[in-house]
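Appendix B. Raw example, untouched.
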Amino acid sequence: MIITSHAIERYTKRVSDKDKKDIPVYIAQNKDRIEEWILKLYESSEYICEGKIKDNNLAHFIINNDGWVFVIDYNKEKIITLYQINLDVGAEFNKEYISRIRDKLKSEYKKMQIGEIALLGIHKEKDGLIKENNSEINTWKKQIQ
């Protein structure tokens, strides 16, 4: 998985106590370790959904138990950015909130997938009906000529 420089910078700003002006130097000196930390967070994550981001590009959203949300490119090759959900009401509340939201999103996503499967079935059924009707129309056209 490729980690963009933007993701490395955003992660470092979010977890580091460094001054803003010191961040580039810190990243240059610790890039490999930062990438390892990000990948460890990513490995314990699970898929939430896909959605549009800047310039209407599609991306995948993935979250881990600690509330780190990863925005992954559509081809699932790059971590575009990441951020941590923090409601500033305590770690336990954050974990409970993240767990419930993740469960709700998974449930809704499954419903959406079931709906898409049902639509595909209807689409195939209608395609068959259209083909039958076109065949019958062609038969009638031949009889009229």
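End of appendix B.
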